[in-house]
Amino acid sequence: MDVWTETTYNIPWQRLTTAYGRGTDIPQLIETGQYKALADLIEHQSTLWQVTPWVLLELLRELANRKTEPEKVSLDEIELYIAVASCFTEQDMESGQPITSMSELLDEKYLWPVDDQEDEEMWEEEEPPGYESEAFFSYYYVSYSLLKQAEPVFTAIMNGNDQLAPTLRELLLLLEEDRSEQ
Fold this sequence. Notes:
This protein is mainly alpha-helical and 182 residues long. It has one domain (22-181). It has helices at 26-31, 35-42, 52-65, 75-86, 119-123, 133-149, 151-160, 165-181, and strands spanning 17-18, 21-22, 43-44, 47-48. The strands form 2 sheets. A two-stranded antiparallel ribbon has the order 1-2.
């Protein structure tokens, strides 16, 4: 699955969940580079959420455009990627059955209703929308695929930013460990 080629014209952030509710504020957080706030929403206690692969796709596309300006990359952004990569040590990437394309995660059956009035009741359901086993596994699988495909970007930034190099080495090691354990 080449997730870099996914077309994302209209991500329904308000219908995707985070660790603390809906993803309505995510576009603004991405635009203003609030990486710590984003990290709190996309990963919590080694759990990835519906918004995680979409946030990564947006951020990694932007990061790829900045790889020739590694001094403009922040530690907070790299730490966001480390928080997500750390989740893969808990998840066997070959044990589940992922969806066939990333855009499939935006199928109506996986989205939450537009109205958020009954969110608390929906969380109490056995399987709230978007948390069926195939979809849930896919948040990890797609996020892992995105980070793996970004390894050359991480390496280019590491080679051009001495301050971030140790943190980027840590990230690349996490991704390498995940590959060697599979």
